[in-house]
Amino acid sequence: MPKKFCIVCGREDVELIDRMCPSCYIKTKRLVEFPPVILGKICKICNAEWIDGKWVRLAETEYDAVRDVVLRYLAKEMIIDRNVKDYRIDMIKKWKERGGRSFAEIVVEGKVGNQAFRLKKKVELRLTYSICDDCLKRKSGYYEAIIQLRGRKEFSEEKRALFESFFTNETVHSISDVKISRDGIDYYFINKTAAKRLISTITSIVNAEITESYENETIKNGKREAKLVISVRI
Question: Where do the Nmd3 N-terminal domain residues begin and end (predicted)?
Fold first, then answer.
């Protein structure tokens, strides 16, 4: 019975993939096909990413936002050889060249058969930096809700610290303004849902008096709109 051998290097009695040993397969085949450019949109203020028609804030830094955009785009557009398994993709650096064009270095690690491989590829980035809806609202002073923090008898920094200890990332990114007075603090929210969620969390743990009201009522496109005012007394 004839022995099996690699048609490239001639090695015998080895694992064969398309009549080649894994090592020769890696050397002769195009294991990964990269898109010519990577496209995306990022908010230049808060690093939110434009995903499926809406702004989503996933990363704290611009580098991490770019990395998210790159990996998401590659997951959709990159073509992997059918014999590649256990692969992982990462962006290890990005830079801008003298002419103003931006690039990223992509690394792909994986296996063909029992043979590991590591590929590097320079890919051009065409990213649009704009301002997301939330940042535009903050810059314009827009708000949907106000939380008025007060003391039952008198206000104190301890009560403020207790209240703000419940802030999440969503809370912080939804606040457009903070106004401090002798009586307490007013927090202006660009998103009333975030304000309501914060109050729900606080009242599940803290004994607080809550009063809701509305102000500045208007009619817009046939719908009644008003600013939500939530009074919180701790």
Answer: 6-234
Residue 146 has, within 13 A of its CA and on its CB side, a CA count of 20
8-state DSSP, 224: E
**pTM of the full structure:** 0.77
Pairing of the two strands 223-233 and 184-189 = unpaired
Mean pLDDT in residue range 165-194: 93
What spatial distance separates the first Cα and last Cα of the chain, rounded to whole Å?
A: 87
pLDDT at 2 over 70: no
> Which whole-number Å values give the CA distances from 15 to 26, 30, 73, in the listed order?
13, 19, 34
Mark residue 102 as left, alpha or beta (left: phi above 0; alpha: psi -120 to 50; beta: remaining): beta
Q: Residue for token digits 């809806």?
A: 133
- Domain ranges, ordered by start, for the chain: 22-130, 141-233
Instruction: Return the H-helix or E-strand segment holding 214.
Output: strand 209-220
Distance between CA 156 and CA 108 in Å, rounded?
55
Of 194, 190, 166, the C-alpha closest to 178 is 190
Sign of CA dihedral 19, 20, 21, 22: negative
Neighbouring-strand partners of residue 20: 17
Residue identified by tokens 């059918």 is: 82
Beta bridge partners of 188: 146, 177
